[in-house]
Structure formats: C-alpha cells, structure tokens
Known about the structure:
Rossmann fold, 14% strand, 15 helices, 7-stranded parallel beta sheet
Amino acid sequence: MKALMFGWEFPPHILGGLGTASYGLTKGMAEQPDMDITFVIPRPHGDEDQSFAKIIGASFVPVVWKENSWEHVESRIGWIMHPDEYFWLRNGIKYDFRRIYTNDLGCIDFSGKYPENLIEEISNYEAVASVLAHQLDFDVIHSHDWLTYPAGRFAKQISGKPLVIHVHATDFDRSRGKVNPTVYNIEKTGMDAADHIMTVSNLTRRTVIEKYHQHPNKVTTVHNAVEPLKDAESFVKKPRKDKLVTFLGRITMQKGPEYFVEAAHRVLEKTKNVRFVMAGSGDMMNDMIELVAKRGIADRFHFPGFLRGRAVHDMLAQSDVYIMPSVSEPFGISPLEAMQVGTPSIISYQSGCAEILTNVVKTDYWDIDAMADAIYSIVTYPSMYKSLHERGLEEVNNIKWSDAGLKVRAIYDKVTGR
C-alpha cells in the first residue's frame, strides 16, 4: 500500500502537536511490512528522520518550468534533493502556475510555519500537489489537518485516487466558536471531498458530524498515541524544596491558560511551597503575565517560553504535576508525554485524551476549585502522587502508535477496495 501524505509539520522542527502526531502515526504505520509512505511538508530542513518514510519538501518541487543546468540545480538544492529528482518532478508540470511567485528553480519559497499569508501558502500547496499527483505512484491520499485539505483534493481530482483526511482539530476548537468563515469553508470543502474522515477523538468526531454536516458512517475516530520514550530513565527529578506544577502548550484561549493561573492562585492561598510554570508561547502570553501580577503570585510563577525536543520531557520530568485545562482539546498528547516520565496529570473533560486515559485526574476546564483541590492533593499526599505516578506509567506504555496505524490501514483498505 502506497500512501501520499500531505502534512505541515514534521519533527524535529515543530510548532505544536500536529507535527508530533503526524510523525508518530507515520512511524507506527511504517511497521506494517507493505506500507510505503511519502510525506510532503512545505519546507524541510534536511535533518528529518527518513528511515520509515520518504520526505518531500514542497519548497523544492518545481511548479513553473525554468531552464536550469544540472550543475546549477545541484549547487542550489543538492544538499536535500538529487538533481535528477528535480528534473523528473519538473516533467509533472501540467498547468500554468506563473501567477505564483517562484524562484530561479521554479519552486515556491514556503515558510514552513504559520505566516500572515497562510491562506496564500495553503493555496500554493495545491500547485505542488498537482506536480506530485502527476508523477508519483500511490494508492491513497492522506491529508493531515485543514492546511493540507486543498492539496489533497487537487491530488484526488488529478489522480482519481481516494482521499482520506485526518482532522487533528477544527476551527471550533481553536476559536472557542468564533469561527473564521474562510477556514471553515476550507475545512468543510475538504470534508465533503474526502472518501473518509478520521478524527483524533469522539469529541472531534461529534463536531465534524454536527458542525460540518458529515454522515456518521463517513467519520471514524482514531485516537492518538505517544512515541515510546527510550531513555525515560534518564529524566530524573532533581531534589528541591518547592513542588512544581506545569502547564505546557500554546498560550491561547483554546488551552485555557487563565484557568491554570486562577487555580494556582487558589493553591497558593493554602500553601506557599509550590511553584508554577507556564511553558509555551501564544497571543495570550502578556495577558497571563498581567493576570499573574494582578493575583499577586508573580514570585511563584515562571514563563520559560516555547520548549522543544528533550527540553519538553525534562520540564515534565522535573514537575510534580502536569495540568492541561483546555477549553476544547481534540486530543492532547502532552499529558501522555508527562505520564511517560512518571508525572501525574490533571486534564479537562473537554479533551479527547480524557476518552482513553484512566490514571489521571479529570475536571471541567472552568472548575478552578476542583483543579486547585487536585493540585493540592497531589503535591501534599505522597500516596496519591505515587499511585498516579506508577499506574500512569503502566497505562501510557500500552498506548501505541502501531495500534492507531492498524486502524488507519483498515480505512485505507476500505476506501481502496482491498
């Protein structure tokens, strides 16, 4: 089975959970002996792991024919793509994309991020998809999240191959209901065109059915998992006087950071031997700094900024409690990552991972009293900490991407008629 996947992020260069989930699922699926995956991202860096999937950078796929020597191509992109592959892909240019600005190679300079002209980059991604759809051999198209739905649709139109889309989040999650009409239209059009829709939770599945008017038979939940942490024993909690409670994620209204601050304030009314960390970045950062100051707890609060790679697990390992008070979280992998290093987690009922996790504390995102009580209990009573620590480790080690991959494969087989 050959799958052409369109994504937007891929480790080690990620900006959120989308890249982590895309990587884990792809690696888990690659364990199937007959899976052949080509994963497309806007702008690779050359250090992506290609041991289980071929990575193609949209920034290096020509969409406008320009005459170039083999030597020039080699000097420009030889570090990441063989010139022969460039010339072979150039033969897949079937449409006139000269309206799009391209460089000397006829390629589009994607940012690989989420720039102000994101909608333009999403549209330009379609041009790359057309070239790949004409040149590559594949059985199914798999588009990860709304950013890649238009590319997947165009590839389906050209190739006639079935399209599966993966809903990692919807704009209803990101905006607390204040949906952007342009984004909604992209999402809805992609869902309408898909042969099957996968969602990361039943929570998201309900949103797809009710808000995007998709038939229930067309939508299947495939819960996320977590990549095994091979060196988990190397993350050792350092002795300290104060307990540490951590929020780690985008500091946006979707993640409920203000509820974390308010819960912290309640905890600090009972005990002063606790410090709180809000790790991440986002448009509510300054608001949270001001709220912390307003509540008079700035001396107990830390804002280390965005963390990536080993720093994420190290931060989680040093924590006594991890909390994810998300208002609407399609899944949420970070609690699983915390559990991998033995850190007890508190999550909101309004998160997809709450559907599969047992050995965590669950509260409503708005119930700051319940959150505060849970934090206080874990940092105060060693038996509660020990139970969540041990049982959480056992539980999370049995949540595997390979199992999710088998569910996706069954969907591939269904849409391709195998």
